[in-house]
# Entry
Amino acid sequence: MEEVDRILIHSLRQAGTDVGDEVESIKQFSSELIVEAVVRCLRAIDPALGNGLSPSLPPGMSARFRLGMSLAQACQDLGYKGEIGYQTFLYSNEPEIRSLLMFLVEKLPRESSEASDQPAGKSVLLQKAIAAQIKAQLALPWLPPNCRLPLHSKQQSPGPCHNFYSQPLCVPYSARVAQKKQSKEVIEYYRDFLAPVTTQPSQPMSVPASLLEHHASELSATQEWESEWNSQGLLSRLTPEEYRSRKRARLQKRIVEQLRAAAQNRPDSQATQRSSSDLAELLQSFSGAMAGGEVLSKGTRFTHTEKFTFTQEPEKAAQQMAAAASSLPTSRQSEEELQAQQQAELSDVQQQLQQLSIQMEEVGGEMRRLTVSISQMSDELKQRELSNAEKEDTVRIKKQTIDLLPDAENNLVKLQNLVEASAKRVVHLASQWEKHRAPLIEEHRRLKELCSNREIESSRMLSEIKNLHDKIRQSADEAKKKEELYKQLTTEYEHMPKDVSRSAYTLRILEIVGNIKKQKEEITKILSDTKELQKEINGLTGKLDRTFAVTDELVFKDAKKEESVRKSYKYLAALHENCTQLIQTIEDTGTIMREVRDLEEQIESENSKKTVTNLEKILEDYKAIRQENMVLAAKMKEA
Amino acid sequence: MELSESVQKGLRRLADPAAFDAARFAALVEAAFAGVTRPGSEALLDHPELKHADQALVKLCHAAAATVILEAAKQNADRSTISSCLEEFKFDAGRTDLFCDSYQKHKKAVENLLAGIGGSPPHITDVSWRLEYCIKNGYVHKVNQPSYLISFNVQSGVSGGSPSEVNFNCTTEQLQDLVGKMKDAAKSLEKAAQS
# Structure
């Protein structure tokens, strides 16, 4: 029983009951401890059920009684089949309490085993790691700053800190550029001039930040591309390169359109002249990247203005530079002079600007006019050419007719023949065409069908591919999760206290099982012994009966003849009767002995129930309740 | 440990015995760790073993190795994680061991480097205080209240650990409030350590 008690107490401690170290068996449990243990267990099993109960015994007797009743009710609700009532808790006896606690401990939820099946979330792991770190740091003794070794200083003072500044890095054969596209110069640059990545950032402190940032951005770019490819790219049935180039072209087209729309909204205003030329440049560069400026081949106005501003800009820049240079040395002059100078400069520049803009407008107007006239002219030219060709045709026909006129009849017949022959030929050709057409149409239909079949097939394959992709991703995720779980469990296992109790328990259980087997064997042996004995007894009784009957008959026969034998017959009968009586007595003694043993056992069990002390306690409690009642009655009377 | 395409490419080349023999590999790993732990030092790749290799390849592999080192330190990867990660790129056992040994050797330095990124509030290293008893002031004839002049010696992280002072003046209640809050903070720290 000690083993069971130890296990029970261990489980109760885990459930949160404050069982003292000196308590070693259920026998030593006091009423308070029992109530607390039961309430804790109830709370662990069913919080709704247990939360209404207080784990400590109240001082008032009636309150105790009520608590006992509600505890018993709760246990019965949980499905406890044994006898239970308030007396179980208040006037405890060992076996009842043991069976009750065993029932409750068995009902305790096995959180730990269930929880370990699920991998703990990342946040939980992180929190654990943080807690461990804090614990480690708290465990260190505090040292005044002057006494710190460099080893400690990392943990107790922040050390030099700097912010996360990252700079773009250049890595040879970067993933963004396909290798075949690299020109010779780029490769040469990589080989001879590119600095290693760790020396690229201008500040040594930003090296880790830059490297991490570079890596993260590449990773996220790959991920984005993959998700897009899986969602849209696969459906477009293009190779990745084609898809990429098409997307790029689409984007560029959209940008170009947007920019052009924005630029054309205000074509003539002075303010947008510069920006529109910038836009033109931008557009040019975009279309340049697209290979060939076809998109902008018609944008004459932009190219003109571009040229115009291009020729202007260096001059302007030179002027500005000169102005800036002249203002530099005079910066120490008084402010009014400076202001006046600036004013003058400003007006000068404004004048220039106005002049230039006027000039520009004039030139622009001229240009527009000229372009319009050019287009008009070209239109006219085309029309003239057309009419010219027409006229030439009519002249040719008329000339032929005139040639035919002299020998009119012959020629008419000839012409008619010619016409008939052509008609025949046409009919013949049409029939031939029909002949050719039918199989061709057939072929066309067949091919079309084939094509649609293929399409269906390919879409099926596509969906299959998609499924496969999903599966792959899922399995990869699962594998990763499993791996993490495995790692976590191994670390947990390593951290687990290697308590011997488990193996001790199993050993003990095995021992017990062995003992039980042995006992069983013994019991069967005894049983068979008993059976044998019974058989023997039965056989002996039968033999006795038979012998007696035979003897009885013989003696009876003889007794009829002789007087002396009659006496012996009487003796025989008496002997038989006496023997039966003896046997009866022996059997009675056996039953009585058994009864005595039963009774002794009963006495023992009754003794173990602490009946006397419990009765005394009940009496005391009864008195206490009466006293309470009296006090209450007195209060009632007073009130 | 997830690695980007260019890093993977670099590692694959690094594992290739044809591109990097053992001595060259050791030199490159050494250079990568040196580049991470002592950033900015010039002439990193001037090792004689590396001089004769294709410089672009060396730079690519150097970048990859440096990234792996930083990522591993960032994720607090242990030896088994790194070796399994490297084995994916067909590193043989000798190279993996060499890399892991160097990693163990430099791990603390790399961690310190990463821990140095970011700011932290200044640390209090010492405190001194003075009790001031105000008898009267310009407005009230009789004040009779104590007040505390407290001066914290702090060490701020951003400015490289140079000590400075924070001075303030508070009444008894304010001081009690401050002490209570500090106690609360210490308690919650302990609670966090136990969870």
Remarks:
- Chain B touches chain A through 54 residues (CB under 8 Å).
